[in-house]
Structures are given as C-alpha cells and as structure tokens.
Amino acid sequence: MKEVVLQVEGITKTFPGVKALDSVSFDIRPGEVHALVGENGAGKSTLMKVLAGLYKPDGGKIVYRGAPTQVAGPLDARRKGILLIHQELSLSPELSVAENIYLGAWPTNRFGVLKKRELRRNASAALEALGCGFGPDVRVGTLSVAMQQMVEIARAEAFSANVVIFDEPTASLTDTEKDQLFHTIRGLKARGVGIVYISHKMDEIFDITDRITVLRDGQVQGTVDTAETNLNQVTRMMIGRTLDAYFVKAKPEFGAEVLRVEGLAKQGLFRDVSFTVREGEVLGLYGLVGAGRSEVVETVFGVRQADAGKLFWKGGKIDLPTPRQSIDMGMALVPESRKEQGLVLIMGGRENTSLPHLSLFSDLSVMNRTKELATFEKYRSALSIKTTGPDQAVSQLSGGNQQKFVLAKWLCADPKLIILDEPTRGIDIGSKSAIHELIADLAERGLAVIVISSEMPEVLGVSHRVLTMSEGAVVTEFKGDAMTEENLIDAVSRHRDEAAA
Ligand SMILES: Nc1ncnc2c1ncn2[C@@H]1O[C@H](COP(=O)(O)OP(=O)(O)OP(=O)(O)O)[C@@H](O)[C@H]1O
Ligand SMILES: [Mg+2]
Fold it and tell me: Ligand 2: distance of its center to the CA of 459 in Å?
C-alpha cells in the first residue's frame, strides 16, 4: 500500500433535487498531482468543497494523516493544512496581500491587537518562497488574476499545507502564467504536498498529473495512472463514449456582408483593426490572452468607447452603437466572464440599472419569459445543461453549466451576428463538440458568427477564416490551406518578437 495523506470514503452530498456526490471514495498521496475530471456538474467542485470545509457531507468519512477527521469550516481546513484554490478567486480586493494570506487567522497578542510586524514578516517569507514579484503590502485589488492566484497559493506556505486543491486554475491565465503556475505546482509536489488538479483542458491533465480519477453523475468511475491511459479511455470514462470528430465546420455558403469594421482604435488597447464578416460565415479571432481580442468585440458591441474607426452594418455606415442599439440591430455578444453573468442572473429583475451592459442581460432573462421557455428547453437538451428545472438559481449550477446557460440565453435572442468570446472555456469535452456543432448550425442558418478562442484547434476547426491578433493589432488573415497551426503560431510570435525588438 502506498502512503496516503488524505482519504475520503463513501462521501455523499445531496442538494435539493440532485445527488451531487454518491458514495465517493478517493485518496491523495503525498507528492502526487491527482487529476479530478468529469462532465460539467459531475460533482468535482462539490467534492473539493467538502474537503475544504465549505460543505458538510451527508455521509461518509474523511481520513486525514491517518486519523478520521471532521472539517468544521474553511479556516479549520486551512489550519489543518488543506487548502482550496477556488474556481473563481475569492480574495478581498480592499485588503493587502499579507492580510489576505492570513484572512480570518490574523496573529494577535493576548489583548487581541493585531501583530502587524509578524503578519508582514510571515507573509513576506511565504511570498519569497514562491518567488512572487510583489510584496506583502500591495492591495490585492491591484493585482492581475495570476498574481491573485499566487496570493492564494502563498497560503500553502503560510499554513504549511499538506493538501492543495486547484479548481480549474488556468481558465484565465496567459500561456506564460500557466508555465509559472506549473513550475509552482511542481515545487509543491517536490516538497511532498498532495495536489488535486481539476481541469477540462486534457492536455494539461496529461502534462502535469500522476493519476486521474473520473467522476460521473456524482460517482467515481475509476482511478487510473496517467502514464498508463490515454485521452480516448478517459473520455469514455467521462461521457460513456469516445469522440472521433471534435470539430464540425459549416458549409462555406456566404451571403451579404453583415458587419464591416474599419480602422477601429483605442489608445493603449488596440489600433487600426479592420475586418468584415458575412452571412453564413464563421470568422475566427485567434491570439494569446491579452492580445486585445475581447476589447475589440466589446467596442464593436458598444460596451467600450473607441477613439477612432468606422462601422458598417449590412452595408450602411452607422455610428458606434450602444449595447442596447446593438441588440436591437441583431447583434449578440456572449462574453467570456460567466461570473458577471451569473451575478446578474441571481439578481434578476431590473436591480442592476447602474451597470448598463449588465442590466441589458437581465432584460433578456429567459427565466421570466414563458414564451422563450420552449427555446430554452431546446438548448438545455442540445447543450445538456444540468439543472433541476428552470427555477433553479443559476448561482447553484456548476461553473460549466452557468457558462452553457449564458450561451443558450443569447441564442434565444435570435441575432443576425453572434460574437462568441471563448465559448467553450470551462466546458467539458463532450459539450464542447456540441457547441461546435451549434456554431456550424447557426452559420448554415445564415447567421454571421465571430468566434474568439485561445485554443488553436478550436479556432481552426470551426472557422472559415482566421484573423490573428497580437499586442492590439490584427496581424494576418488566414483562409483555406493556409489555416494551419504552424502559420498561426508563427504569425503571433513573429509579431510579438518584432514588437519587443
Ligand atoms: N449550492 C448548491 N445548491 C444546489 N445545487 C448545487 C449547489 N452546488 C452544486 N450543486 C449541484 O451539484 C452538482 C455538482 O456540481 P459541481 O459544481 O460539483 O460540478 P463540477 O463537476 O464542478 O462541474 P463544472 O465542471 O461545471 O465546474 C450540479 O448538479 C450542481 O448544480
Ligand atoms: Mg466546478
């Protein structure tokens, strides 16, 4: 028997209408990276929240370092050495890095007065051990997502964690930041920390993990050694079948021009961006995170202001629209951030008038309109959205199912042009191909589609034409046989090197 740091046996957790975990058994060895994979809603985050003390299980036991253990709450988990890095980061932006690392466990003297110097000293040591390029006094709200994640990881040092759980940690990281994260994970591993790694990115799973446990509908399908399995086997365990055709491209039958953008510019974000998209066409926008792709489409849609540029809609010149006008014309933008979307959906109604681009989403809320319920049902089955019913609060859905819901909601609005920003981020591989089929289907029905993706096979697989963006500029357009991975990488990296020189 190999050494085990944490073991769960027969854990069960039920929410109203869902058995999220059904007698789950699973163990973590010191110094291993253990992948937890499964479809959206399979129960991955729930299991980890049980270990981190956020949910109390209905049954089963946790054996930690050889002894049966109850985890009373998140702080108790942290003190015991079990640390969860959340799917959505959860730090307090107003507090300093040091205060966040020790949140809820600030060192005080016997009169309850905060020992500031000790707090700073310990936090500094934790940050240094990780090689972070910032100090303990910085306000967390000013840090990038990757740096905020490092602050959460610094808790592993500060609390001498034995188990660290990463729930989809690379969702909003650039490639360089991902490499840094993997370096940090390998460092934790080398020191004997047991690591759980949740992701839908199968290449990452095969890159960094030692074992893979597959969850399906709250049940463990099995645990395999990463070196002894392959993508097909894991996919079959996850969704009950293999996937041979990942990508479907719409038949290339194009109609009239729907949108033309000329010389769009915004100081500090992007410059001289021009492109067109026609009916029935899927235009891909490829670039690394931070290239300015989201900013461009947000400006076209009217969420952001431009400094210069012209817009033509169905051949006629128009002023840069407001989001309301964009929607009325027949434009839809499905943004990449599901967190904002989810929030709006919890609030519902018209409570968020202060945020114009958010309130417009709630105006279209599917939940309140019986007329659109049938359409929603259609997409719910097409995208296999896992809910207990139309009344379930979106906040209770798993991360990936929230994302699918946002997509479905926009599709119901029946647009002429739909812009999809990272449509499959956080989506399981079975549903990914359903979304690709849906994109092809939309184009074949005559919609113009713009797809932003950081995943090269995806952007090449679904698009008729691909524009590469780098450092705020459109670099090259590729179509037909020129649409290859080599060409895209080459275009993006050559431009970056030139910009750096
Ligand atoms: N607080 C909650 N209240 C009610 N139901 C919940 C709650 N949290 C999770 N669920 C349900 O439990 C099931 C498992 O959700 P969980 O978040 O664990 O999935 P996941 O495997 O992490 O999925 P994803 O890959 O989409 O993040 C889902 O059906 C979800 O809707
Ligand atoms: Mg999850």
Answer: 24
Average of pLDDT values for 190-197? 96
Sheet holding 82-85, edge to edge: 82-85, 163-167, 194-198, 33-37, 211-216, 219-225
Going through 168-239 in order, the beta strands assigned E by DSSP cover: 194-198, 211-216, 219-225
User: Ligand 1: which of 14, 46, 198, 395 to mutate, most ligand atoms within 8 Å of CB?
Assistant: 46
Q: Is 40 in the pocket of ligand 1 (CB under 6 A)?
A: yes
Q: Whose CA is nearest to atom 3 of ligand 1?
A: 396
Domain ranges in the chain?
Answer: 6-239, 257-500
pLDDT band at 462 (very low <50, low <70, confident <90, very high): very high
pLDDT for 356: 28
Across 22-33, average pLDDT: 97
Residue recorded with tokens 């490829």 = 286
By the 10 Å C-beta count (0-12 exposed, 13-18 middle, 19+ buried), 403 is classed as: buried
pLDDT tens per residue, range 222-271: 999 999 999 999 999 998 877 665 677 889 999 999 999 999 999 988 99
Q: For ligand 1, say whether the CB of 20 is within 6 Å of any of its atoms.
A: yes
Termini Cα distance of the chain? 55
Strands 308-313, 316-318: pairing is antiparallel
Alpha-carbon gap, residue 105 to 78, rounded angstroms: 10
Residue range 109-140, pLDDT digits in tens: 877 787 788 889 999 999 998 888 899 999 99
Decide whether any atom of ligand 1 lies within 6 Å of the 397 Cβ.
Answer: yes
Contact (Cβ atoms closer than 8 angstroms) between residue 178 and residue 97: no
Our answer on whether the CB atom of 386 is closer than 6 Å to any ligand 1 atom is yes
Same fold for the domain at 6-239 and the one at 257-500?
A: yes
Cα-based distances in Å from 197 to 26, 98, 111, 214, 447:
13, 25, 41, 12, 38
In degrees, rounded to 5, the angle at the alpha carbon of residue 295 between the alpha carbons of residues 289 and 298 is 130
**pLDDT surpasses 80 at 366:** no
302 lines ligand 1 (CB under 6 A): no
Domain 257-500 in CATH 2.130.10.10? The answer is: no
* Position in ligand 1 atom list of the atom nearest CA 39: 25
SS3 state at 100: helix
Give the contacts of 376 (CB within 8 A, at least 6 positions apart).
Answer: 366, 390, 408, 409, 412
Question: What CATH architecture does domain 6-239 belong to?
Answer: 3-Layer(aba) Sandwich (3.40)
Task: Write the CB contacts of 339 (distance below 8 Å, at least 6 apart in sequence).
Answer: 88
Please name the amino acid found at residue 415: P
Task: Convert 235-299 into a string of H (helix), E (strand) and C (coil).
Answer: HHHHHCCCCCCCCCCCCCCCCCEEEEEEEEEECCCEEEEEEEEECCCEEEEECCCCCCHHHHHHH
pLDDT digits (tens, 9 = 90+) for 322-360: 988 998 899 988 887 655 543 344 432 222 222 223 333
